[in-house]
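Sequence, please.
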């Protein structure tokens, strides 16, 4: 029988720094919850709102796969790999930080906030050569899951150093589908971006997180029109 864990939106950690309003699904910075350290290889899932013109000054990362998904607005990214680029809503950004990366992330617009998901995944290889990638997948087709990340450079979407698959989808009310977990030993952490869903009988609202494992597949039904969801299929033992 499948095992599950439910993280309602209101139970997340919260940090308000004036220029940054951030909700943490897992322990991060000043938020520590020993029962919410990670979901397998999924270490960080932050739901960030950054004030106009503000952002994260240059800081280091190493040996972590970092994925950024803008939900509203634009982010300006700079790093010591020579990248200076704007990340827009609809883009997917990946950094394999490996032996070390210094980067900054700012709201590119002075007059409106930017909203994005900041996700960290433990890698399956340490001390790799750092790399940066950014894609703009075609997500216009409703009522299907779009793969935006996998372990394979030649597969749909971008890739990271981990046996992980991410899928994004936007659905009409009552549309139902089945997602098949990609690899034995993996589980799925679902994060509702917008609207409401039913996953295996569990109703989820916006910004709820739901982990499910010890199953081969999950059933997903949208309970509202234009409901959006992110599925993160990750190893339970990083």
């Amino acid at each position: 029988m499948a095992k599950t864990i439910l993280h309602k939106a209101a139970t997340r950690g919260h940090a308000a720094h004036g220029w940054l309003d951030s909700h943490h699904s897992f322990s991060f910075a000043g938020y520590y919850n020993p029962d919410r350290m990670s979901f397998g290889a999924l270490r960080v899932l932050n739901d960030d709102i950054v004030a106009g013109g503000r952002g994260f000054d240059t800081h280091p990362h190493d040996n972590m796969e970092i994925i950024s998904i803008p939900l509203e607005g634009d982010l300006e990214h700079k790093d010591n790999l020579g990248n200076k680029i704007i990340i827009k809503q609809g883009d997917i950004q990946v950094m394999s930080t490996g032996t070390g990366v210094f980067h900054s992330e700012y709201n590119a617009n002075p007059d409106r906030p930017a909203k994005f998901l900041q996700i960290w995944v433990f890698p399956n290889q340490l001390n790799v050569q750092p790399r940066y990638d950014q894609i703009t997948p075609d997500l216009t087709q409703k009522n299907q899951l779009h793969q935006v990340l996998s372990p394979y450079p030649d597969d749909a979407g971008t890739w990271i150093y981990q046996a992980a698959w991410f899928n994004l989808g936007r659905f009409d009310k009552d549309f139902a589908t089945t997602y098949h977990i990609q690899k034995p030993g993996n589980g799925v952490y679902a994060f509702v971006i917008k609207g409401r869903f039913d996953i295996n009988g569990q109703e989820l609202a916006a910004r709820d997180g739901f982990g499910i494992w010890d199953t081969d597949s999950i059933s997903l039904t949208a309970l509202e029109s234009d409901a959006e969801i992110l599925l993160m299929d990750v190893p339970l033992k990083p």
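The mean pLDDT is 97.
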